[in-house]
Amino acid sequence: MTQEYPSTLLEKAVNEFSKLPGIGRKTATRLVLHLLRKSEDEVASFSEAIIRLKREALYCRECHSISDSEICPICANPSRDHSIICVVENIQDVMAVENTMQFRGVYHVLGGVISPMDGVSPGDLNIESLIGRVASGEVKEIILALSSTMEGDTTNFYLYRKLQQYGVKLSVIARGISVGDELEYADEITLGRSIVNRTPFTGKTF
Predict the structure, then answer these.
(1) Which residues neighbour 13 within 8 Å (Cβ) at sequence distance 6 or greater?
(2) Domains by residue range for the chain, with CATH
(3) Taking the CA atoms of the chain, what radius of gyration do you get in angstroms?
(4) Does 16 score more than 70 pLDDT?
(5) What residues contact 183, with CB distance under 8 A and at least 6 apart?
(6) What is the pLDDT of residues 71-92, one digit of tens each?
(7) Mean pLDDT to the nearest integer, 175-192
(8) What is the pTM of this model?
């Protein structure tokens, strides 16, 4: 049954919010009505933050994480171990690993995983720039910290085939993360232990 709205303005706002991932129409309606109760200045501040994010946010030219400058604070930090790169699917995963405070290397954000069913091929991901970083000869270890899904394992194997010629150490996070789970939803202790207890990656699936 189609929900009726007393205002076309309300309906349009709900339609826009419901386009966000994980936001159904009921939740979208609650969010819109919440904003409607706020002052005009508060709503303007909310809108400005989103617009500025879209217009001004940059992506680090080294790791592809979101940044306020061409090089993100992690890549620019001389105290980080730049010889160890943790490969993750998205920016949320960088935040999740950082919250564990167990990793002092740097990152590489792929921007997704290989998924033929969803039309995502290796060429759609930040793989060539990762190969370039490894080919520089300064990288000693690549940690594959992708979600323990079929798509994640497929991407792990593809990267293994691409990177093994460079003689770099390849490891994968320990499977303290349940099969099918995504990194951003893992608790910090489990994720931290998975990073610390990583194991060599041999190109075989689990």
Answers:
(1) 32, 35
(2) 8-54 (1.10.8.420), 80-200 (3.40.1360.10)
(3) 20
(4) yes
(5) 88, 89, 92, 93, 96, 97, 145, 146, 147, 177, 191
(6) 999 999 999 999 999 999 999 9
(7) 54
(8) 0.78
Residue 168, pLDDT above cutoff 70: yes
User: Which of 172, 175, 148 has its CA nearest to residue 160?
Assistant: 172
- For the record, the structure tokens of 177 come out as 């993360």
Question: How many whole angstroms separate alpha carbon 31 and alpha carbon 8?
Answer: 16
How far, rounded to the nearest angstrom, does the alpha carbon of residue 42 sit from its chain's CA centroid?
Answer: 29
Residues whose CB is less than 8 angstroms from the CB of residue 88 and which lie 6 or more positions away in sequence, other chains included: 94, 97, 107, 108, 109, 110, 145, 146, 183
Rounded CA-CA distance 145/176 in Å is 12
DSSP state of 117: G
To which H or E segment does residue 144 belong? Answer: strand 141-144
Which residue blocks in 148-187 are alpha helix, DSSP H?
Answer: 150-163
Q: Provide DSSP, 37-83.
A: HS-HHHHHHHHHHHHHHHHH-EE-TTT--EESSSS-HHHH-TTSEEE
Q: Is 120 helix (H, G, I), strand (E, B) or coil?
A: strand
Structural contact between residues 188 and 100, judged by C-beta atoms closer than 8 angstroms: yes
Percent of the chain with pLDDT over 70: 83
- Phi/psi at 79 (5° precision): -85, -10
Rounded Cα–Cα distance for residues 184 and 2 (Å):
34
